[in-house]
Amino acid sequence: MQKLSDARIGAGNEVLSDANTTKDVVGAANTAVVSVLSYKFDDMVGATARAKEYLASEAIDQYDKSMKALETEIQTQKLQVVVNPVSVGVVSLTGDEARVLVFADQIGTRADKQPSGGPTQFAMNMQRVDGKWKIVKLDFFETPK
Predict the structure, then answer these.
(1) CA torsion sign, 35 to 37 to 130 to 16?
(2) Measured in whole angstroms, how far is the alpha carbon of residue 3 from the centre of its chain?
(3) Three-state DSSP class for 127?
(4) How many C-beta atoms lie closer than 10 Å to residue 33's C-beta?
(5) Which residues pair with 104 in a beta bridge?
(6) What are φ and ψ of residue 9, in 5° steps?
(7) Model-level pTM greater than 0.90?
(8) How far apart are CA 40 and CA 50, in angstroms?
(9) What is the model's pLDDT at position 115?
(10) Cα–chain center distance at 28
(11) Cα–Cα–Cα angle for 82, 123, 72, rounded to 5 degrees
């Protein structure tokens, strides 16, 4: 028998019925976003090590490809990027899997001290791996032209 709450949140979605896990996912997502998306040109090895503590599955390959594509720019511009989540919401939660929407501020600083960046938003899939919530996929939204 379907319950009224199933109609509101979707059958099987535990985001409203499991407040403790939802809170855990939000906390893990906040920490993961900062660790995965922030870096400094003179500590890329450390940044990569920190990032990979919070990545699993497809997200590892996404991270590696992204950093490889940006490698020259990061070093040439002596770039430092800090990403701070402003708001994190769990869209769906089923067992050890969650879909999260993130709104964040992304600030980059180059060697010439010229700041760049601004607000960004993206979604990510997270999964509990060995008791720790990790990002398994990142979905960045393209800005309409």
Answers:
(1) positive
(2) 32
(3) strand
(4) 22
(5) 85, 120
(6) -110, -5
(7) no
(8) 12
(9) 82
(10) 9
(11) 45
Closest by CA position to 112, among listed 81, 83, 79, 82 = 79
Q: What's the whole-number average pLDDT of the chain?
A: 90
Structure tokens at 41: 């040109």
Rounded-to-integer distance, Cα 112 and Cα 80, Å: 11
Q: In angstroms, rounded to a whole number, what is the distance separating the alpha carbons of residues 119 and 57? A: 27
Q: Which of 50, 49, 111 is nearest to 75 (CA)?
A: 111
Q: Compute φ and ψ for 34, nearest 5 degrees.
A: -60, -45
CA–CA gap between residue 82 and residue 28 (Å, rounded): 17
* CA atoms of 30 and 25, how far apart (whole Å): 9
- What angle (nearest 5°) sits at the alpha carbon of residue 75, between those of residues 84 and 56? 50
Give residues with Cβ within 8 angstroms of 56, minimum separation 6: 127, 129, 134, 135, 136
pLDDT of 141 > 80? The answer is no
